[in-house]
Automatic annotation (TrEMBL):
UniProt-recorded Gene Ontology molecular function terms: metallopeptidase activity
Name the record gives this protein: Protease HtpX homolog
Note describing how the cofactor binds: Binds 1 zinc ion per subunit.
Enzyme class label: hydrolase
Length: 303
């Protein structure tokens, strides 16, 4: 059946596949080490550790798309309610030969879009009202092609799983410090654990944070490249990027702050920085990097 297809006409990206595999391997290794350290330090609480770790993973993997959509205020819309948006998604899906995802709109003036879902069958693509007001039809199709490439390449699911370890590290630290695990024992081992667990959790969080940021920046360039090649209109995507980046400066800071936690899933970040350190920690490459790549693709297609 068509709904079971996993291959699409999006250009395969071996670099993205290799980076996702490497990130997942390192994250998995870090996860095993982290849980092992927690179980060694909290000997009597290992059932709670496994229960929390397993429960969080299930929630993160199976419900992340619904959580993200709910947090952004996304509401699913029918073709009758949003004919232009559905029409654009239909055209991209026909070009890519992939199942049509659920379509949603978020009532926000921040011009952006995102895709969620652990696979093509559970995918949801969402555009904000601010984006729909500002973009021309060809520009909107470029943005949607970018977002659907994340679904086709399955990097949305990888980013969801990869971000899980940072969430787990934070939760386990709070459980230990505020939940009173191990406080019934007043020996020296408990005192050592009280110091080591927050320290280990902080290290795990930093490593997982950096790994996901590196992958996130590459996957955005990969999505730009795949969208430009699929539609054959890199200039339309470049125009959308330039327009959205310029419009961000006109959005009130409080609205951008609300959207900032979802930067990793957005078409463009709510905040961007020119400083080298901030760029290393950013979820997205710079606008200049993205436009430069699209310019090269446009020249290649022209030849």
């Amino acid at each position: 059946m068509a709904a079971a297809r996993s291959h699409t006409r999006y250009t395969p990206d071996r670099g993205l596949t290799a980076r996702m595999a490497t990130t997942m391997f390192l994250i998995g290794l870090l996860y095993v080490v982290f849980v092992g350290v927690l179980m060694a330090l909290m000997r009597g609480a290992w059932p709670i550790i496994l229960l929390i770790a397993g429960g969080l993973f299930i929630v993160q993997f199976w419900f992340s798309d619904r959580i993200a959509a709910y947090s952004m205020g996304a509401r699913e819309v029918t073709p009758q309610q949003a004919p232009e948006l559905h029409g654009a998604v239909d055209r991209i899906c026909a070009l890519a030969d992939m199942p049509k995802p659920r379509v949603a709109i978020a009532d926000s003036d921040v011009p952006n879009a995102f895709a969620t879902g652990r696979n093509q069958e559970t995918a949801l693509v969402c555009a904000t009202t601010g984006l729909l007001r500002r973009l021309e039809p060809e520009e909107l199709e470029g943005v949607l092609a970018h977002e659907l490439s994340h679904v086709a390449h399955r990097d949305v699911a990888v980013m969801t799983i990869a971000s899980f370890l940072g969430v787990l590290a934070g939760v386990m630290t709070r459980v230990w410090l505020w939940g009173g695990l191990g406080r019934s024992s007043r020996d020296s081992s408990t005192a050592i654990a009280m110091i080591l667990i927050p320290l280990v959790s902080a290290v795990v969080y930093v490593i997982s944070f950096l790994l996901t940021r590196v992958l996130s920046r590459y996957r955005e360039l990969s999505a730009d490249r795949a969208a430009a090649l699929l539609t054959g209109r890199p200039s339309a995507l470049a125009a959308a990027l330039t327009k959205v980046d310029g419009e961000m400066a006109r959005i009130p800071t409080r609205d951008l702050r609300k959207a900032e936690p979802f930067n990793a899933f957005f078409f463009t970040p709510a905040f961007s920085s020119k400083e080298s350190l901030a760029r290393l920690l950013s979820t997205h490459p710079t606008l200049e990097q993205r436009l430069d790549q699209l310019g090269r693709i446009s020249a290649q297609l022209g030849r």
